[in-house]
Every structure is written in C-alpha cells, then in structure tokens.
Fold this protein.
Amino acid sequence: MLVQRQMSVIEEDLEEFQLALKHYVESASSQSGCLRISIQKLSNESRYMIYEFWENSSVWNSHLQTNYSKTFQRSNVDFLETPELTSTMLVPASWWILNNN
C-alpha cells in the first residue's frame, strides 16, 4: 500500500516540523510492515511530500494508532498552513518484489 501525504508547513515552524518529521520517520521505519518512507521537499516552498509504503492497509491502520503517529498528527495541527492531504493506493506485492531485487 502506498500512502502519499502532502503538508504545507508554516514558514516560522519549519525547524520544529522538521524535527517532528525526523522522529516520526525514525519510529515508523522501524515498524514491522513499513517497507519504505521517502520524503520530498518541494523547492522554493515549505511543502513536503511524504511517500510511505506499507505491507497492507491493516498494518497502515495499526500504525495510525501508535503513540508516535498520533504525536506527529497532533503537532501538525500547529505546524501546517492547511490540513494535510492524504491519499492511498494499493500496489501489487509483485511490484514491490520486482523493484527491490
């Protein structure tokens, strides 16, 4: 499962957001079922794209209930200009296996 998250960060809160994002990525990456997390900062903007690959939707839903995920979500209320945009897409397991060998 691919999860795409788009976040527009308030310029003054950029440093705090980056620290919160770092903690989130470190915690999420160590979780069973998290295959990969990739972050892209759009140039000349304080907008971030986060791509998370999870084994399946039930693992993703469990991840959303963890303390580190809830902490990151709560901090985003203060750091973001607009609400986070999240979209998901199911990806065949064969795609992941073929592209990581």
Residues 13 and 79 are 6 Å apart (CA to CA). The chain has one domain: 1-90. The two ends are 18 Å apart (CA to CA).
